[in-house]
Predict the structure of Omega-hydroxypalmitate O-feruloyl transferase.
Amino acid sequence: MTFTIPMYNASRLQVKYLQIVKKTKADNPYRWIMTLESAELPDCNLYPNQPITVRPNSPTPNHTLYLTNLDDQKMLRFSIKYLYLYQKSATVNSDTLKRSLSRVLVDYYPLAGRLRNADDDQKLEVDCNAQGTLFAEAFMDITADDFLQLSLKPNRSWRKLLYRVDAHLTFLDVPPLIVQVTNLRCGGMIVCTAINHCICDAIGTSQFLHAWAHHTAKENLDLPITPFHSRHVLKPRKHQQMTFTHPQFTKPVTNTGHVDIFTFLQSQPLVPSSFTFSPAHLLRLKRQCVPSLKCTTFEALASHTWRSWIRSLDQLLSSPSLTVKLLFSVNVRKKLIPEIPQGYYGNGFVLGCALSTVKDLVSDNLYHGVKSVQVAKSALDDGCVRSMIDLLEDKTVRTDLSMSLVISQWAKLGLEDLDFGRGKPLHMGTVASDIYCLFLPVIGDVNAVRVLVSVPESVVGKFEYYMNECVDYKEENNDDDNGNGNGYVNNNG
């Protein structure tokens, strides 16, 4: 086998490993893979006097915004970080972006406020004081094409693309919205945003970002969706009624000596793994349920990812009777009675919880996992969600992460269509990979899904093998030599 290693001297990218995918026309094709483990980005140079504060361009309501029990959960006390890459023809002047941001902050004025503790010190609220958001502008000596080659697998150097506030500040001190626009040598740009999860969920962030893009491209036209600010539609009932069991939550307990996979993962060096599933591959995945079971793309892919994750962790396989969990985001805006009003951008999702023993999940095929996901989804009706909101009045309740894989759905939200008036992005993704799994959109193919999750370095090979195991190599072998056919694509490069 021969290969060449491309040089990136012009952009000063430090290539440590190279992935090569080779297909043959033989009956037993071999895949030779060397992983592009890390390609460090060059320095990102902030322009003088950065960042600046962008405030609403007209007066906004000055009041306290109540946050629901779904909003101020402990596990949501972080920012959702998005990354968008635009080629030169789609680039927008930063002054234009700042001006339209100032305009959209009138519509979404809580994002210009600050989080604070309510009187009881256990509850968060938003002080809508128009203090403003941070906007930074920088330059990086790299081209859009260079970055696109690396865009499927984040690493720590990507963090320089998003301005970091002073380390001594607490979570409450950080502005709910931070933006950094990084101009590239080719004339393209990277736009990164950090949006506080206690104020918006993924649907809400998509709604806000599209509103910002709308004001940029169509300055004088009203927003197509008016934001709905009030959170009282999700207040707990006066007399709490926990009439359902909620296995996705737990209370603090002393060390029981049981396996805690979350603690193990946090103690390990983690490696990002990324996989793009084409529509044809997703169809083959669904067909692997035996007996046949009608299911959605999400149900099949979530089950496959959960099963592969469990199979790669020896700590779980050694305890086949252990109960493991899959926690996944479910939009409940239309599940409640009455439905949550259109334009609601707060946290309108809950975590579904699929349960299985290790033995049942890893044996045979996807059927058991898919069925578990479907049962968990069907349980989330109005009564169950209201019971969950009531349960979260108890501030000692925590999301049970000890034996759980968490999947967040970013696909199918329109995040990849963010157009500031001159064109859609070349790439949309996250600034960093984590132990929480993301289902991401694929630019140019609305029916494809990219899976991104970080796993321990010691098991990454096994995890990738199991994620790849469902591929029909004979069918894939008939694809063209560039890998543009129906097959699975491993993006670890």
The first strand starts at residue 14 and ends at 15. The chain has twelve helices and 21 strands. The CA atoms of residues 95 and 311 lie 50 Å apart. Residues 3-33 form one domain.
